[in-house]
Amino acid sequence: MPAVDSRQQNGLSYSELSALLVPLLQHTKAVGIEFTILDPNLDKDGKYTSDFANNFMAILNTARR
Q1: Would residue 56 count as lying in a domain?
Q2: What Cα–Cα distance (Å) separates residue 58 from each residue in 5, 9, 19, 52, 61?
Q3: pTM score, two decimals?
Q4: 61 within a domain of the structure (yes/no)
Q5: Cα–Cα–Cα angle for 10, 40, 8, nearest 5°?
Q6: pLDDT digit string (tens) for the chain, length 65 residues
Q7: Which domain holds residue 59?
Q8: Total domains in the fold of the chain
């Protein structure tokens, strides 16, 4: 994803991110989350930021079930 400060090849896919985050978000001690690398200024047309937001909302919806 080019909208980050430190790009890496072969990073997490959205399905891998979901597999990681869903159990963490479902834990009773989970009270919040912070994103520190996503930089919409590096995503001129908003494609990657929009994809991330849509996928993250899907992850949140899965975690709430």
Answers
A1: yes
A2: 24, 24, 12, 10, 5
A3: 0.78
A4: yes
A5: 15
A6: 778 877 778 888 899 999 999 999 999 999 988 877 888 888 999 998 899 999 999 999 999 88
A7: 13-22+45-65
A8: 1
